[in-house]
Amino acid sequence: MYYPEPISKLVDSFTKLPGIGPKTAVRLAFFVLNMKEDDVLDFAKNLANAKRELTHCSVCGHITDKDPCRICEDQERDGTVICVVQDPKDVIAMEKMKDYQGKYHVLHGAISPMDGIGPEDINVPSLIERLKDEEVEELILATNPNVEGEATAMYISRLVKPSGIKISRIAHGLPVGGDLEYADEVTLSKALEGRRDL
Amino acid sequence: MYYPEPISKLVDSFTKLPGIGPKTAVRLAFFVLNMKEDDVLDFAKNLANAKRELTHCSVCGHITDKDPCRICEDQERDGTVICVVQDPKDVIAMEKMKDYQGKYHVLHGAISPMDGIGPEDINVPSLIERLKDEEVEELILATNPNVEGEATAMYISRLVKPSGIKISRIAHGLPVGGDLEYADEVTLSKALEGRRDL
């Protein structure tokens, strides 16, 4: 025993977080010991509350502390457009942009046969249900631009197409502020393919 | 509001930790949401407990969950040698070595006139008291090898010398596994100065 038990337990807890190895965990644990007691108790409370109070919105699957979530409940948002994303963090990235006024659907993953994840394992069925009930005119597929994300977008697009709903995929191309010289071939090829008239 | 309140509160708590910026804090908070509830509640409990149950040993100043600490209470350890360190983490580094069987005294800092820290602000007075009460034969000064640590070692050494207790300072030199080529001049000069007959 190098550490008194309360420290080693706290170190163990920190080690479970991603990107935090044993040395960082020790540093964090000792930092906590020097924090004000109120701050530490707040931290503990925030941890427990975040886990306890947050659920997934029964409509869109976004993470929320009330069901349905604020975005689904917001009457000012355009319910005829649904943006399909993989992760709650993607909703937040979209919201930060402040340009999008439609609603969302969070899949919580992407189709990945390699990992045994099929359409039934992510929120695809609830999306299909939703399209039947709500008056949706456009579905924007904003899954990640990688193999799994593309496959998921393709799958949903084929599934929904017959219903006549307009389906679009977010553009691939060079990131703003990027450099042509350092762009990889696939991105460059997509950027060329997606060129627009000026 | 991008995040539901319980998440943004948790993100704030994580941001207070050293080396964790806003982006990492968000990543950790979302990771916590996907952790098992028991693990999160354990984490919260460990945080609160670490702060609540740990105090400083009234004898040596090391961090402990019982007073006096296990090292001070251990009858098998040699009470005639006291190793003076700056920080509880230094005690743990020494203990990991497994070579040292004496006791410790933790200063909780170093003398630093630049920051307005004098001998009275760190655990020097309690060390002097301890030297009066206990039968100490040797004091090993293991403060850090930097300006503040050297000044502190020098101060304690001058203060204690008249009492006749043997005072030593841990060696400066090249770290084991290091490379002469990359050693800085001061370390090299100390290594040369501290050379030993073979």
TrEMBL record, chains A, B:
It holds the Pfam family RecR_ZnF. GO terms for molecular function: DNA binding; zinc ion binding. Keywords: DNA damage, DNA recombination, DNA repair, Metal-binding, Zinc, Zinc-finger. GO terms for biological process: DNA recombination; DNA repair. A zinc finger (C4-type) spans 57-72. Signal peptide: none annotated. InterPro entries: DNA_Rcmb_RecR (IPR000093), Rcmb_RecR (IPR023627), Rcmb_RecR_Znf (IPR015967), TOPRIM_dom (IPR006171), TOPRIM_RecR (IPR034137). CDD domains: TOPRIM_recR. Gene3D superfamilies: 3.30.60.80, 3.40.1360.10, 6.10.250.240, RecR Domain 1. It comes from the Bacteria. Residues 80-175 form the Toprim domain. May play a role in DNA repair. It seems to be involved in an RecBC-independent recombinational process of DNA repair. It may act with RecF and RecO. Belongs to the RecR family. PANTHER family: RECOMBINATION PROTEIN RECR. This is Recombination protein RecR. It comes from Aquisalibacillus elongatus.
